Amino acid sequence: MSRVLTALQPTGNLHIGNYFGAIDPLLELQEQGNENYLFIVDYHAITIPKDPAQLRKNIIYATAVYLAAGIDINKTTLFQQSRVPQHTELAWILNCLTYMGELERMTQFKDKSRNKGETVSVGLFAYPVLMAADILLYNTDFVPVGEDQVQHVELARDIAKRFNNRFGETFVVPEPRIRTSGARIMGLDDPTKKMSKSAESPKNYISLLDDEDDVRKKIRSAVTDSESTISFDPEHRPALANLLTIFSLVTKKSIQDLATEYKTKGYGTFKGDLAEALVSWLKPFQEKVNGYLKNEEELKRVLDKGAERALLKAETTMKRVREKIGIVL
Fold this sequence. Notes:
Strand content: 5-15%
CATH topology of the largest domain: Rossmann fold
Strand order of the largest sheet: 1-2-3
CATH superfamily of the largest domain: HUPs
CATH architecture of the largest domain: 3-Layer(aba) Sandwich
Order of helices and strands: EHEHHEHHHHEHEHHHHH
Radius of gyration: 21 Å
């Protein structure tokens, strides 16, 4: 049995890229008899300023989304990162084994720190080490990630090997698991950049809570190209390839079948049908999310139980780590 770990930042603006890139793969793994961990990385979220009241709401919302998606708390340990203090304890120890050059090469840090000069937080710089701690704390075998996160899993692998070489076999060296389709849903307004909840324009993404009219408007305004036929060509027609990927994910039809079906029907018909498919997919999901949100106390209890389970595993690892580095007398 493999141990699988997935984490997402709490946000009130989770989108379909988050769902198909991170949540959906975990649902598949959940049914394969793995030992699954899914947690809300609230400490990662504060690497940039957050309103405390909104952060609390986002944690509750994220919990509702996971449960509505089909996360089974009997099969997956669902919890809040900050409720397990061993995450930050291990992160500090791993910070002492991580090189500045390794973190300076992190692509996401370069992107997020661009033009910010000396105002970039140490937390933003060091958060890949906290991510490594998140992964290694549970001796994770597989980490389902999008292509943009593979670099961080590779860092976790390097740190695990370094620790094992210096102090003796301690951590499992994790493997990234990349979904071949849908791992990286691109922006509707810019197919060269992935769909992002922090995008300047809401036309970039389809939020999991967008209403029907917003979905239709965003799909109508999604960029395509000047060609008249529908075909799947990620290299030369990335915008259309992205829309076909989304269409395939929400209908469970193959991309090639969809490309053949709409080959000569034109963008108007294609976008109209894609929008309706998204609306049909989102509606029952949104009803489930709203149902969970009506009982906030139950959502908190779910997180309480998950934290209790996670603490047991985390402390087992930390006892071994403390002994290895020589701080246990």
